[in-house]
Amino acid sequence: MVTLRPWTRWQDWVRAALGAWLFVSAWVLGTAAETMAGAWNFWIVGLAVVLVSLWALYMPGEQLPHWIGLLLGAWVFVSPWAFGLVLQPAGWSAWIVGLAVVVLSGWVLMELRGGPRAQAQG
């Protein structure tokens, strides 16, 4: 069942936490020491994931923040190749965070759009 009360959808809280981790991981995993461009990518995209998640929490019936979340998650997933972080801890972190953000955003979108069960019944 879809939760349409503000500030209650767990997927958005997890996605916000993932964005916060992405933001701080630039320091924790040494991305800033490896490549400043990669660090700035983590800082900007991590902040964007947090803000989009807060938007989704505030307006739980909106689909747009989840579509943006899908795009941000996909970018996070491919960014290790763009910034030379492949097979480094920051790269592995980006792959996990990116995949999780895509899955969580897609999950909520399916719920908001009625999901497979609602479409099969209708």
UniProtKB/TrEMBL annotation:
Keyword Cell wall biogenesis/degradation tagged: no
TM region positions: 12-33, 39-58, 67-86, 92-110
InterPro entries assigned: SPW
Keywords attached to this entry: Membrane, Transmembrane, Transmembrane helix
Domain of life: Bacteria
UniProt cross-references to Pfam families, sorted A to Z: SPW
Keyword Thylakoid: no
All copies of domain SPW repeat-containing integral membrane, residue ranges: 10-105
Protein name: SPW repeat-containing integral membrane domain-containing protein
Organism: Rubrobacter taiwanensis
